[in-house]
Amino acid sequence: MSHSVRSLLPPSARHRLKSSVTHLPHPPAWGSGRVVVLCYHSVHPSKQFSSATPELFAGQIAWLKNNCRLISFSEVHHQAAVSRQRDEPVVALTFDDGYADNYEFAFPVLSTYRVTATFFLTIGLIEKEPQVVERFRQQRAATYEEVQPLTWDQILLMRENGMEFGTHTWSHPNLAQLDDDSATRELARPKEVLEQRLGETVTVCAYPYGKPHRHFTEHTMGIAAATGYTYAASVTFRGVRPRDEPLAIPRFFSTWDSTKQLESKILGSLDLLGIWQERAPRWLARLVSPEDFTY
């Protein structure tokens, strides 16, 4: 995008527009029966692209454990249909990519609090395919050590201890930009490898980058269904509704959230962001979030 177009909405204005709804009040009833999915990437003491430090993550999990019912991602769609029958919010924790720090720092916290989470693995990264590793290193502006993936032994141990696993494609492309054959390979190949490793059917996946209309489309969803997936995760900042498409389940990014910010996502005062992401005209979305159109 040219500098002149970006200057129509400077970074400070884009930030204010995105964050302006953070402090909107929400009625107490908004949290009743809500189903929310949170998306993490890295939990680490010092990484620049981490979602939380181990200490912050432990505080978040403690708050969630005390205030919500925590479930796996594969349960989300059903729970959204029946959630109005209970008062407490229902929350699923997910992790994208498959970094080694998920085992070193996140998994011990989850185990301590007896909480499950769903890990969407970029299988080309797990397999240490050089081109995929380099893609992650460049996009994260990171060293190899910082994007070091989980090992299969770690994944199997986590699965034995109640964690759920799905795929995040093979090489982390923008699926909306691929032809049908390439998109099918990106979805089918990791599913086959993960099923062989786990010895079970894999039915859940997450779209890289995850924004509807920009990184996946209804056509992409059809390919995912034909490949054998039942549920797929997007990145749309709102709670899950009973009638949501099971192959486009919305998630909030969780990035250095304070307890107050976490509560805002769980209880509903940030759902306006999700409505914006789904309904904004493409030209305006490009002005506000030009980074979404660079992949």
N-to-C order of helices and strands: HHEHEHEHEHHHEHEHEEHHH
N-to-C span: 12 Å
CATH topology call: TIM Barrel
- Beta-strand proportion: 5-15%
| Envelope shape | globular
Tell me the number of helical segments per DSSP (H or I, 4 or more residues long). 13
What are the SSEs and their pairings?
Layout: H1 3-6, H2 11-19, E1 35-40, H3 54-67, E2 69-71, H4 76-82, E3 90-97, H5 101-112, E4 118-121, H6 123-126, H7 130-139, H8 152-160, E5 164-167, H9 180-198, E6 204-206, H10 218-227, E7 231-233, E8 252-253, H11 259-267, H12 271-279, H13 282-288
Parallel strand pairs: 1-3, 1-8, 2-3, 3-4, 4-5, 6-7
What does this structure look like?
The protein has 295 residues and is α/β, with parallel strands linked by helices. The chain has a single domain (33-293), classed as TIM Barrel (Alpha-Beta Barrel). It has 13 helices and 8 strands. Strand 3, helix 5 (101-112) and strand 4 (118-121) form a beta-alpha-beta unit. The longest helix has 19 residues, at 180-198. The protein is globular. The two termini are 12 Å apart.
Task: Name some characteristics of this structure.
about 300 residues; alpha/beta; 6-stranded parallel β-sheet; two-stranded parallel sheet; 13 helices; 8 strands; disordered N terminus
